[in-house]
Structures are given as structure tokens and as C-alpha cells.
Amino acid sequence: MWDTQPSRSRPVLFTIFITLYLVALNLVAFAAFAWDKRASIRGDWRVPEDRLLALAFLGGSIGAKLAQMLLRHKIRKEPFRQQLNGILAVQVVAMAALFAVYVAAG
Fold it and tell me: Averaged in consecutive runs of 10 residues, what is the pLDDT profile of the chain (106 residues)?
């Protein structure tokens, strides 16, 4: 009557969703850093630091860090730099832990 076996497509769909989410969020984070860099040069409205850090925290830390390095934006600004590095470090450790659990589960 009811299918008690988990569907094989669910993990695949979940993986696709997470991958698309992370790619999109990293692109948005990179674009936000680029926007802020351009605004800082022009003297226009800036993206608040808490918004940049929020994008990193929600999963865009790689895009944020790449933008910071490639655009040379907010590289000397403390504590922003430390906070971004901390977010990235926590996310790398979390991804490593998830990968270890995935591998152990077989």
C-alpha cells in the first residue's frame, strides 16, 4: 500500500537543490562585493557590511572570499576580515564533517 522504501530520487534532487542554492548564493555574494567596491570608488551608496557577512554566512562565503581577494576589497578592514575568515572556516569544517558522514554511511 505505502512505499516504505526511500526514493532514490530524493537524495539526488536534494543534492541538485543544494548545489544550485550554493552556486547562486556565491554568485550573489561575489556580485555584492563587486557592487560595493564600485560604489566605494564612485562615492555612491554602499552595501552594509552586515549584509555582506550575511551573504557569506548563508552559504556564499567562497564567493565572498574570492571577491575580497580578486577585487582587493575590504582586505584591511578589521574586524570584517576576521569575521569573513571565521565564517569561511566554520563552513569548511562543516562541509568536511558532512562529507565524512556521507562517506561513512556508504
Answer: 61 91 98 97 96 98 97 91 97 94 83
Residues 6+ apart with CB under 8 A from 59: 21, 22, 25, 26, 91
Q: What is the CA radius of gyration of the chain?
A: 18
Q: Is 63 inside a domain boundary?
A: yes
Cell of 34: 563587486
Q: Whole-prediction pTM value?
A: 0.85
Burial of 101 (0-12, 13-18, 19+ CB in 10 A): exposed
Boundaries of domain holding 33: 10-105
User: Is residue 88 within 8 Å of residue 65, measured between CB atoms?
Assistant: yes
